[in-house]
Amino acid sequence: MKKLFEGIYSDSKSIYTKNLNKGKKVYGEKIINKNNEEYREWNPYRSKYCAGIKNGLKKNIFFEGCTALYLGSAEGTTVSHISDIVEKNGAIFCVDLSEIAMHKLTKLAEERENIYPILSDAQRIENYKEFLEEKVDALFQDISQRNQAEIFCKNAAFLKKGSYGCLSLKTKSISQSKTKQDILIEEKKILEKEFMIEQILSIEPYEKEHYLILVKKK
User: Fold this and answer.
1) Virtual CA dihedral for 99, 120, 138, 61, nearest 10 degrees?
2) Under a CB-based contact definition with an 8 Å cutoff, are residues 142 and 71 in contact?
3) Which domains, and CATH codes, for the chain?
4) Which among 68, 89, 104, 121 is least buried, having the fewest CB atoms inside 10 angstroms?
5) Residue ranges of the chain with pLDDT lower than 50?
6) In this predicted structure, what is the pLDDT of residue 133?
7) Which pTM does this prediction carry?
8) CA-to-CA distance for 203 and 184, rounded, in angstroms?
9) Cα-Cα-Cα-Cα dihedral sign, residues 50, 115, 123, 119
10) For S-adenosyl-L-methionine, which residues are the binding ones (predicted)?
């Protein structure tokens, strides 16, 4: 098992994280055992961040002990793997609008104590400001609203200066008529007000019309 980044591994075909909750699956993923360690396979077709790793993401924004803010956490597929990476002394504050998704995420949080579900719109940062007593080490966003870069920049208020974030940019959610390249240029200009752009990746074939943008807070 080759170590790609802190907490992320590969057997040359698939991506894995060490299972924080041994013996338990989250979404039907494959579990393998190597050298007395249990690893959960990370599906790039179900995780934009994993798709980015498969396509050459140059830096992992998460690490052991990391405090992360995750916008658009859904039912917790990607969150569960981040939970593995940050381990028991880390924390993931998960914001999502969907009550159905939040119900499932809350059940996951009962099994994984480093996950903190927050039912809120990511545009209304005042709704969850009280949960974030200190600034976070990492910011990740995977939402479908039209003003994705604007929301990401608004939440940059919670990110430590010099720390990293990743935006999963869904171009078709922003405009059906513009090309994905034109949308990327427009969103990039917004991001550059708060961030230095470190890397831009297409995450096809795992997700069409999507980019993963790695940034560092100015």
Assistant:
1) 30
2) yes
3) 44-217 (3.40.50.150)
4) 89
5) none
6) 86
7) 0.95
8) 13
9) positive
10) 77-78, 96-97, 121-122, 142-145
CB-CB neighbours of 36 under 10 Å: 5
Q: What is the CA radius of gyration of the chain?
A: 16
Q: Cα angle at 94 between 10 and 197, to 5 degrees?
A: 65
Residue that the structure tokens 């999963």 belong to: 168
Q: Report how far residue 57's alpha carbon sits from residue 214's, in angstroms, rounded to the nearest whole number.
A: 8
> CA torsion angle for 212, 50, 208, 190 (degrees, to 10)?
-10
Q: Which two tokens stand for residue 95?
A: 């914001």
- The span from the CA of 153 to the CA of 144, in Å, is 15
Q: Whole-angstrom Cα distance, residue 155 to residue 176?
A: 26
Contact 97, 75 (CB under 8 A): no
Please name which of 125, 132, 38 lies closest in space to residue 91, comparing C-alpha atoms. 132
Alpha carbon distance 82, 195 (integer Å): 22
Binding residues: 77-78, 96-97, 121-122, 142-145
Q: How far apart are CA 125 and CA 151, in angstroms?
A: 9
Place of tokens 């405009």: 175
Residue indicated by tokens 């699956």: 25
Euclidean distance between CA atoms 162 and 102, whole angstroms: 30
Q: Which residues are annotated as a binding site for S-adenosyl-L-methionine?
A: 77-78, 96-97, 121-122, 142-145
- pLDDT given for residue 169 in this prediction: 96
Is residue 20 a contact partner of residue 84, using CB atoms and an 8 Å limit? Answer: yes
